Amino acid sequence: MTAARRKAEQDFGEATVTSKGQITVPNALRQALGVETGDRLRFVQAEDGSIRLEARKRRRIVDFARANAFCVGEAGLDLDKAIDESITEAMLERDRRSRGA
Predict the structure, then answer these.
(1) What is the largest CA-CA distance in the chain?
(2) Residue of 42, 38, 39 lying closest to 54 (CA atoms)
(3) Residue 58: how many CA atoms within 13 Å on its side-chain side?
(4) pLDDT for 26-61, tens place per residue?
């Protein structure tokens, strides 16, 4: 490996694979990639055998809805409130079903 390539590379440490095949992504790497809870990581193998790690940001439905705003009826719709109410209702329904009520 050339000195220039070593200089261009950054070592983010290492991770241990658990018996379930899981790893913990080192904090410095998560910060460098801007990875947060719910984001996905893709591992891609190049022809030369090296592995490239790609971070795929999770888009929340609220983010998508805000980017594609619309109004319903004369007064419009508070999208955040509607989503929160729907989620709460779904969680209550799931709880009722799990308790056999």
Answers:
(1) 68
(2) 42
(3) 10
(4) 999 999 988 888 888 989 999 999 999 988 877 666
Place of tokens 């109004």: 71
Sequence-distant (6+) residues with CB within 8 A of 83 are 61, 62, 65
Asked whether the beta carbons of 24 and 30 are under 8 A apart, the reply is: no
Give me 63's structure tokens: 């983010």
State the architecture of 3-56 in CATH terms: Ribbon (2.10)
| CATH 2.10.260.10-classified regions of the chain | 3-56
Tokens 């508070």 sit on residue: 78
Residue ranges of E strands in 1-101: 40-45, 51-56
The residue behind tokens 């190049």 is: 46
Query: From residue 96, how far is each of 32, 84, 85 by CA, in Å?
Result: 42, 18, 16
Task: Report the distance separating Cα 41 and Cα 3, nearest Å.
Answer: 29
